[in-house]
Design brief:
single chain, alpha/beta, Rossmann fold, 2 domains, seven-stranded mixed β-sheet, about 45% helix, globular, binds nicotinamide-adenine-dinucleotide
């Protein structure tokens, strides 16, 4: 496990150990469940537009194979490392088990800043990375999807590269593709809509009225922007949003239509005229009802957890809250955290629907997709809330307990091999 050493992997392991203690899991079983099944590290040499060659590092980690093929996103970010990818793969395992999907967790990534590459360079990075993964991915083996820094176009290039190698179209090798080549209606919006749906359920639980509620969104990307739009449709006001370039604030509520046009044109929220700039750290501790971290890991820490002034943290991102911050929030008892493996599960649930549709070459309406999505999220939310209340534990501990227990039981049924 030494090769996975990384603050985010340590964090995933700490969370796991808390649950293992509660379940009185024997030490030998802990290693069996925790250790990623396999990992691939590849060099991705790419011809740049100026004629030079750059070599990027690429990763793919498959956490366990007990319940079916593995599933998980591909991240393009300059700080991507093996240990971070392994932690994200482990969380995917618990997330898929919590929502009842027939998958183990996986994750991949390339250490690259996609904003600094031309479209041609990005395409060559993606195709070469995919080429290096041939044999390691496939519709019955491991099915990538978009994550931070990747999108439908990335998935289209991955699917095409894999298909060229196979000699025929293999749409089921990735999810989050454009609808025109086997993608699912509703996939792009699924994670953000799921976040908003679950934030709404948490507000019901606390007796908060959407019409009087406010939200703050960290990370105005795929997940954050769709969550914001969906929360507005529920009646909330979005008072602050941020991206990698900075944060903006308007206590009267941002005009989301105008903001979307601004972001489409300038590719950042910064400079939006109907708001004032605010430091990112100050934005996180604004008084609001719902705080949606939808960017990176480890944003809510021991340093700011005591200062949060929200009622609900809806974790759009993976791993935004450190275990130290969790302990502080549990102690406070006045902030309901909807944990990442539940809150952002909408993405992988609709990815599962996309995979099923691709395997059957039979496609569903958007209404059908959304209806099935919300039914699964509702079931997972109700089970998590019930366990959290019954055992008087946090929603995170409850969700992780449900997910980890299911994988543990499946491993006991099957044996050591997968
Ligand atoms: P994205 O690349 O579309 O958007 C990420 C956003 O975060 C961008 O606006 C970026 O500028 C912003 N950002 C980056 N660093 C920041 C910082 N330090 N402060 C504030 N903003 C910052 O990515 P995404 O797909 O929306 O993913 C966001 C998070 O959601 C990730 O943690 C990802 O793992 C998680 N997630 C995504 C999906 C999905 O379906 N895309 C599913 C589940 C979980």
């Amino acid at each position: 496990m030494e090769i996975y050493r990384h603050p985010v992997f340590d964090m995933a392991c700490q969370q796991f150990e808390l649950v293992a203690d509660r379940l009185h899991m024997p030490v030998a079983d802990r290693a069996w469940l925790k250790a990623p099944k396999r990992a691939l590290v590849v060099a991705v040499p790419v011809r740049m537009d100026d004629g030079s060659t750059q070599v990027f590092s690429g990763f793919r980690v498959q956490h366990h194979l007990t319940l079916g093929p593995t599933k998980g996103g591909v991240r393009y970010h300059p700080d991507v490392q093996l240990g971070e990818v392994a932690a994200l793969a482990m969380w995917m395992s618990w997330k898929c088990a919590l929502t009842g999907l027939p998958y183990g967790g996986a994750k991949g990534g390339v250490a690259v800043d996609p904003r600094k590459l031309s479209r041609g360079e990005l395409e060559r990075v993606t195709r070469r990375y995919t080429q290096e993964l041939i044999g390691f991915i496939g519709p019955q083996l491991d099915i990538p999807a978009p994550d931070m820094g990747t999108n439908e176009q990335t998935m289209a290039w991955m699917m095409d590269t894999y298909s060229v190698h196979a000699g025929h179209s293999v749409p089921g090798v990735v999810t989050g593709k454009p609808v025109g080549i086997g993608g699912s209606l509703g996939r792009r919006e699924a994670t953000g809509r799921g976040v908003a749906y679950l934030a709404g359920r948490a507000m019901d639980t606390l007796g908060l009225e959407a019409a009087n509620a406010t939200a703050v969104i960290q990370g105005y990307g795929n997940v954050g922007a769709v969550a914001a739009q969906s929360l507005v449709r529920q009646g909330l006001k979005i008072i602050a949003v941020s991206d990698v370039n900075g944060a903006i604030f308007n206590p009267r509520g941002l005009d989301m239509r105008a903001l979307d046009s601004w972001v489409t044109e300038r590719r950042t929220v910064v400079g939006f005229p109907e708001a004032e700039p605010i430091p990112g750290e100050a934005m996180l501790i604004l008084p609001c009802d719902v705080l949606v971290p939808a960017a990176l890991e480890r944003q809510i820490t021991a340093a700011n957890a005591g200062k949060l002034r929200c009622r609900i943290v809806a974790e759009g991102a993976n791993g935004p809250t450190t275990p130290e911050a969790d302990a502080i929030l549990n102690e406070r008892g006045d902030v309901l955290v909807i944990p990442d493996i539940l809150c952002n599960a909408g993405g992988v649930v609709v990815s599962y629907f996309e995979w099923v549709q691709d395997l059957q070459s039979f496609f569903w309406s958007e209404g059908e997709v959304m209806d099935k999505l919300f039914r699964i999220l509702e079931g997972s939310f109700v089970q998590t809330l019930a366990l959290s209340r019954k055992e008087n534990i946090s929603m995170r501990l409850a969700a992780l307990t449900l997910g980890i227990k299911r994988v543990w039981e499946a491993k006991q049924m099957r044996g050591l091999f997968p």
